[in-house]
Amino acid sequence: MEITVDQMYQIENNGHAMGFLKKFMMENAGAAAVRRLVEKFDVTSKNILIFVGMGNNGGDGLVMARHLSGYGAIVTIQLLGSPDKIKTEESSWNWSILKKMPSVKLLSGDNLHFDFIPDVIIDAILGTGISGEIREPYVSAINYINNSSCFKFAVDVPSGLDPQTGETANIFVKSDMTVTFHKMKQGIPKRKDLTGELYAEKIGIPPEAEEGVL
Ligand SMILES: NC(=O)C1=CN([C@@H]2O[C@H](COP(=O)(O)OP(=O)(O)OC[C@H]3O[C@@H](n4cnc5c(N)ncnc54)[C@H](O)[C@@H]3O)[C@@H](O)[C@H]2O)[C@H](O)CC1
Ligand SMILES: [K+]
């Protein structure tokens, strides 16, 4: 069953109100995404570059970084903004854990020059919160991703694709694999040319959180 983006936010809020906090959803989302990635790709000693936006899509990317480090990957995060401008509590919480993990390299701002060639790029820039045309520094990050020939993995939805309508913004990521969360959003499967292999993974939200929504 496909759901709307509005329904997803309502379900998420209901689950949170039940006590299944968004930070737990985020943890499960990042862990489920990593499970799919490592099934496909041996990440041991591989260079993984994660572009992280300032909302909760970025937060999922931060969770992935921690898990991938545990799998022996060499992880670099490029936060697309300043750490003090991270927009949500759960994403900031994950950033603060990573600050205690020298195994993960943390970069921030809009300087997109790296001293390595990534084997995998993770797009955790924008998810269901997208609105309007893509702005900098996200535009440059999306260009960087699309100009790279490595394996590309999209968190929840390729950034720049509207998960409700399936329409694209001025610029958008073309990925090899996409993992969306809880249930498929209506617009995503319309653009399999952008998602690559597409999966919807459960993230522990109680089914009761759907009551009155679906
Ligand atoms: N579905 C779930 O149960 C869960 C989903 N999770 C992940 O959270 C994101 C949605 O997070 P949200 O913070 O609402 O939105 P985004 O991260 O997509 O982005 C919002 C952020 O981006 C800025 N922005 C919006 N449009 C643009 C634009 N065109 N150009 C530049 N910047 C833009 C805006 O200002 C906001 O700050 C969902 O996709 C999942 O990945 C959670 O982990 C919890 C479980
Ligand atoms: K994304």
TrEMBL record:
It is an enzyme of class 5 (isomerase). Keywords: Isomerase, Kinase, Metal-binding, NAD, NADP, Nucleotide-binding, Potassium, Transferase. Its EC number is 5.1.99.6. GO terms for molecular function: kinase activity; metal ion binding; NAD(P)HX epimerase activity; nucleotide binding. It catalyses: (6R)-NADHX = (6S)-NADHX; (6R)-NADPHX = (6S)-NADPHX. The keyword Metal-binding applies. (6S)-NADPHX binds at N56, N57, G58, G59, D60, G127, T128, G129, I130, S131, G132, E133, Y138, D156. Its cofactor is K(+). Binds 1 potassium ion per subunit. K(+) binds at N57, D123, S159. Residues 8-211 form the YjeF N-terminal domain. Catalyzes the epimerization of the S- and R-forms of NAD(P)HX, a damaged form of NAD(P)H that is a result of enzymatic or heat-dependent hydration. This is a prerequisite for the S-specific NAD(P)H-hydrate dehydratase to allow the repair of both epimers of NAD(P)HX. Belongs to the NnrE/AIBP family. This is NAD(P)H-hydrate epimerase.
